[in-house]
Amino acid sequence: MYEQISSNVRKSWAMIAIFVVFVVLLGYIFGELTQFGYAGVIIALVVAITMSWTSYYYSDRIVLTMSRARPVKKEEFPYLYNVVEGLAIAADIPTPKMYVIEDTAPNAFATGRDPEHSAIVVTTGLLEKLNRVELEGVIAHEMSHIKNYDIRFATLVVVMVGSVTLLSDWLLRSFWWGGGRRRNEDRGEINVILMVVGLILAILAPLIAQLMRLALSRQREFLADASGAMLTRYPEGLAGALEKLAADREPLEVANKATAHLYIVNPLKNLKGSVNNLFNTHPPMEERVKKLKEMAFEAN
Question: Disulfide check for 130: which of 88, 135, 199, 225 has CB 3.0–4.6 Å away?
């Protein structure tokens, strides 16, 4: 289990490093081909960070409202309260606030910005269809997202995706207004190569950034699976829950493309095919279950 967690952490930070290099490369070409220089890069970063700061502090309220989640009282679902409180003690974090979505489709997600400001949301369908060990597996997975600071991690990725999108948009606009040609006349033929590379990056960068964001999101799901299994010391519980959730074909009415990546399983219709899987917000279910069963085998 520890090897699996370490491997997932290394892969996540390796992708972040590649992401940073990509942003710096795009910023360098932008500075070389436009009259803005590096000041334009700084402005792009400031705008992206400001947008992300706002979403960082208020996104949880927005998501809870969009998902029609309501707070839960202990008297209403004591069973859920006991599971969440017990796992919070085991994870050594404050007990997250609890919310439910009135929907028979089984699913769950965590939101917030850190363990002190976090919430776990489950559907009533999840409480009805899972047994105790399966429910503990799902709650432990969401608890791991909180403990691993995945929300903060996602904000960092949003900053980089926003920076890439702004820089690529400004690059395209500079080509439109002839900025690249002016620099080309000033600095010789080598800038022709930079112009071609810049044009290709400006067109492809938003797509590449989105693919990297989705790949990071999938990697964090693997990490939360492994950390959740560590928390309960029973990987079979989460594996059984994932199989049950994957087999349930009932749609989650309140889910949409903006919130789909938050849930433990994709609440929207799964994309089929190797190319379409690149745009999926979650790793293949078969692979998640396989890894959990391998962890159970190693633990035994």
Answer: 135
Two structure tokens written together for 104: 């028979």
Which residues share a beta bridge with 108? 122
Please name which of 138, 64, 139 lies closest in space to residue 100, comparing C-alpha atoms.
64
Q: Read off the pLDDT of residues 69-93 as tens digits, 9 standing for 90 and up.
A: 999 988 999 999 999 999 999 999 9
Q: Which residue has the tokens 């289990």?
A: 1
Q: How many whole angstroms from its chain centre is CA 272?
A: 20
3-state secondary structure of 4: helix
Residues 6+ apart with CB under 8 A from 119: 60, 64, 96, 97, 98, 99, 110, 111, 112
Active site residues: 142
DSSP assignment of 14-65, as one string? HHHHHHHHHHHHHHHHHHHHSSSTHHHHHHHHHHHHHHHHHHHHHHHHHHHH
Phi, psi of 37 (to 5 degrees): 65, -155
- Residue 251, SS3 per DSSP: coil
Please give the backbone phi and psi of residue 273, each rounded to the nearest 5 degrees, phi first.
100, 150
Distance CA(254)–CA(64), nearest Å, equals: 11
Of 117, 122, 128, 114, residue with least CA distance to 98: 122
pLDDT digits (tens, 9 = 90+) for 255-268: 877 778 789 998 87
